[in-house]
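Weekly puzzle thread! Below is a chain. First person to post its structure in token form gets bragging rights.
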Amino acid sequence: MSIQQQTPGIPPSLPEASIPVQRPPRKRRPAWFRTPQTFIGRLILVLVAIALVLLFLYPFAWLISASLKPRGEVFDNNLIPNVWQPQNYVEVWNQLPLLSWIFNSLAIAILAAVTVAVSSSIVAFGFAYFKFPGRGVLFGLVLATMMLPGAVTMIPIYLIWKDVGLLGTWVPLWGANLFGSAFYIFLQRQFFLGLPRELFEAARLDGTSYWGMFWRIAMPLSIPSFIIVLIFEFQASWNNFQGALIYLNAGSPSGYTAPLGISYAMAMFNPASGGHGDYQYVMVASLVVTLPMLILFAFGQRYFVEGIATTGRKG
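Winning reply:
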């Protein structure tokens, strides 16, 4: 007998030809590709998604095409211009005070977004941390304000700004945000409820004030939801045509915001009003005004997804 056969625990040697060759595992197809039914269903979903994407991108593609056309071809509905006129992007700055409109909208949108984000966060922290009698009822009344249509409160709010003598200024376009927004309060409160309460209790034991708890603990941990509020309100203020039309009685077109200015340009170029129908400049202005929102969502996408995913979580 060989040594391997005499020694227990040592398997006998095998011929080299009898050793099984280990082959790499075969790549399995995805679960949705294994059967024809799931593959066809998945293919249909992909085609529907592509069709919806193209449907939503068509207006933006039309806008880009119209901004590159001469005066007589703006509304011919061709995505590829017959005559390319890129100088529209240079001439628009001479035809319209577009830079002033963008600056006005940018300043108002920043003021509106920052004030409503900070004020709503303060109120939301109070509802999330403090426990007092009637807290649920008071929070329900705050949420009930969202049920009121804007047309119901439009005239009373206008009379308030008229009595304080602020009509024709920027203040009515962002001043009400100093008192918070019911939707943003609800959004921030849900995020604050997901924070461990032990953090605040430990801070209180160390002598931290309530404001210190909010500013040094709650706010750094709620950056995603805070940025969500900033993006939402910036977008709402940037596109606020009705508010600018009601409150912004500017002495010259250079004092308009971007939405109001584009509406003014449409009326100015209208042939019925004595214009020459140079709507290609309106298309260029509309495209330029859209770019800040695209840039904002591109840079805030990570916080946007994270804030939406964690806001509804309650600890």
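Puzzle host: Confirmed. Bonus trivia for everyone else. The chain has 15 helices and no strands.
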